[in-house]
């Protein structure tokens, strides 16, 4: 990236694209997994007595080994925590507090259908995030991220010693040295490249079936800003030089522990694509009309014969694409 491009990205210069047309746009909706429906109540993670005192009336979210949960009526099924044990098990994680004051914990384990006749389904975030209410989206996203981290963090990265959960599941400690570790998050950028008018870039990864397209994404490297990562990743993946990098929003993506940070940027349709890192099989510039048509045909799960099949609503990619396509 040229020094001028770096300066424009760092300063957030977005006065307009080619021809002077304004290029700013916002996400129309909060990404589905970014919704907030419960109090995270972080003070209770270190107030052990208060957390334990709330266990008797607390609710429990069970997440199985495939990160699936029970869903009924658009809500995640929560059981009685006291039915599991008299106190929080060592591997339980504290998720927060509902509006009525009840605590919510999560454990990894077999799913148990609730009492009564309410129909329930076994689903996960990828398949059911779009039907979750705000509380369910937050609880399941947090539980999935925390439990996935615990599954892979049972030994100290410093000396290999076994570690133990602390702070209501929000940390792990080496009992010999006292060294503490906290949940790891891998940030990744995801960016819609457009020409400042009515064309945008969509691409297909080599491992994806034909017709499945999305916007470009990649993990942030050590010592790199989000904006610099956008420029680098797009150059590596499709060979385009982009400018006017602007933040849109973010969304947790606990598969297993990512945070997707959304942007849009300006590219030149006259510049040829080059697939430099081998991740992208094909890319193209698509008009707003073409993208609107693809959105109307559903998503990746659709049986539509549409030329394009775009990501589902659970992904921030969908929200970014829809928000851009809705521009006049």
Automatic annotation (TrEMBL):
InterPro entries with a match to the protein in the record: NAD-cap_RNA_hydrolase_NudC, NADH_PPase-like_N, NudC-like_C, NUDIX_hydrolase-like_dom_sf, NUDIX_hydrolase_CS, NUDIX_hydrolase_dom, Znr_NADH_PPase
Residues covered by region (Disordered): 1-20
An annotated Gene Ontology molecular function: hydrolase activity
Write down the SUPFAM superfamilies for this protein, in alphabetical order.
Nudix (SSF55811)
Q: Does the keyword Ligase apply?
A: no
Q: Where are the transmembrane segments?
A: none
Which cofactors are reported in the record for this sequence?
Mg(2+); Zn(2+)
Q: Which UniProt keywords apply?
A: Hydrolase, Magnesium, Metal-binding, NAD
Question: Does this UniProt record's set of keywords contain RNA-binding?
Answer: no
Q: What is its EC number?
A: 3.6.1.22
Q: Enumerate the catalysed reactions.
A: a 5'-end NAD(+)-phospho-ribonucleoside in mRNA + H2O = a 5'-end phospho-adenosine-phospho-ribonucleoside in mRNA + beta-nicotinamide D-ribonucleotide + 2 H(+)
Name all Nudix hydrolase domain ranges: 183-308
List, alphabetically, the Pfam families matched: NUDIX, NUDIX-like, Zn_ribbon_NUD
Q: Which family does it belong to?
A: Belongs to the Nudix hydrolase family. NudC subfamily.
Stated name of the protein: NAD(+) diphosphatase
Q: What is the lineage of its organism?
A: Bacteria, Bacillati, Actinomycetota, Actinomycetes, Mycobacteriales
